[in-house]
Write a sequence for this structure.
């Protein structure tokens, strides 16, 4: 693929054996460090993510479009790890943050995959953008819309103040509008617009979560 052809392994700057040794050694070191210095829950999630990505997702890319959902789970686990590292538990807030990351990956990746569908096809990858392009656009829109109720759950759980619903809805609406255009007319210019909107969407949304969490904490402290 043109997107990955300059990576060290693809251009034979690194042998498969060396890549495997590096991956195994860093994986073992990382999980061991999490177990020793953080907690077992975080270490277990880290190990599960390595197995899921390297052992399941990578192999599934040549077999079935379900690989995209598996890959989204891989991307949703890091917020769970962060929450577990900070609290030692996986309370409902952790799962909502993970669900937000899970949902966000579909407009992000499906739009990218549509732009690169020719490369994916040549490489033999079973991506929605290659085998079922209409489903690819529909799934991107579906999960863009799911961002609204997921974000609305954060104030309900006491993670942010209620005004977060308003601010997050503005951000979510823009990405959803781009996803709607992509669904209505799947073509490169709309897929690129959705892709770049998703890149801006995630950091803005995370900053809003932190800001509204901060304001809620300040308000709670002033009421004590």
């Amino acid at each position: 693929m043109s997107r990955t052809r300059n990576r060290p392994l693809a251009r034979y700057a690194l042998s498969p054996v060396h890549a495997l040794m590096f991956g195994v050694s860093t994986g073992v070191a990382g999980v061991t460090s999490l177990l020793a210095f953080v907690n077992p829950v975080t270490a277990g999630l880290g190990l599960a993510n390595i197995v899921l990505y390297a052992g399941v997702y990578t192999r599934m890319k040549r077999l079935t479009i379900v690989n995209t959902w598996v890959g989204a789970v891989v991307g949703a686990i890091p917020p769970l790890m962060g929450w577990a590292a900070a609290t030692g538990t996986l309370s409902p807030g952790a799962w909502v943050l993970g669900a937000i990351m899970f949902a966000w990956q579909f407009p992000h990746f499906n739009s990218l995959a549509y732009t690169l569908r020719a490369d994916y096809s040549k490489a033999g990858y079973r991506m929605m953008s290659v085998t079922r392009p209409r489903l690819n656009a529909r799934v991107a829109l579906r999960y863009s819309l799911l961002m609204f109720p997921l974000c609305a759950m954060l104030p309900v759980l006491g993670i942010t103040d209620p005004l977060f619903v308003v601010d997050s809805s503005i951000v979510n609406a823009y990405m959803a509008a781009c996803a709607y255009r992509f669904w209505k007319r799947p073509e490169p210019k709309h897929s690129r617009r959705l892709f770049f909107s998703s890149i801006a969407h995630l950091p803005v949304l995370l900053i809003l979560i932190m800001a509204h969490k901060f304001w809620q904490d300040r308000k709670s402290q002033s009421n004590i």
